Amino acid sequence: MPGSRVLLADDHALLLEAYESLLEGEFTIVGRVTNGRELVAAAMELEPEVVVLDVAMPFLSGIEAGRQIHRMYQNIKLVFLTMNEDLDVAAEAFRVGAAGYVLKRCAASELLTAIRGALNGKNYVTPLIAGGLTESLLRSGGRVSQPLTHRQREVLQLLAEGRSMKEVASLLNVTHRTVAFHKYRIMEQLHLASTAELVQYAVKHNLV
Question: Phi, psi at residue 165, to the nearest 5°?
């Protein structure tokens, strides 16, 4: 375990510096990124043993980035480090492959424990939400209730962040018409009548 490779992801640069200072004596920090799209690319390039990531990040949420990383590299351990105490969000993190879920206010005392546990094949949940998380997972039967495709989730998050369809098209390297198709397909699938409802859905499901 000494020197295990860790990739850090958070949209606050000062927090990234703090986490690196906390971890660098025991682990090798191979990179720091500030959004979900950078995170997926860095995980593919750097192949860390552990990724420490936030739930809420721009361009691509931590949940969706974690989902993509876990699908490609099941050996990479995902440790979520977040302010989000929502039990359903924590449950979703474990459904997409998390090995740990730590609250930022507990990071100094729990992050090292969570990473060590992940490297030893153990899951870690901050004690503040552990009991409720079990109930949330049992309520849903452990299933992921996600009606949207990977590309639709990307489009939805970017639109909900206030980006125009032209900006979304540029970021995703697709045509404006393709983004428009995805937007209206999403609205049809989710029975949403307006862009405002689209944003509300994204906020409710922690995509922004």
Answer: -65, -30
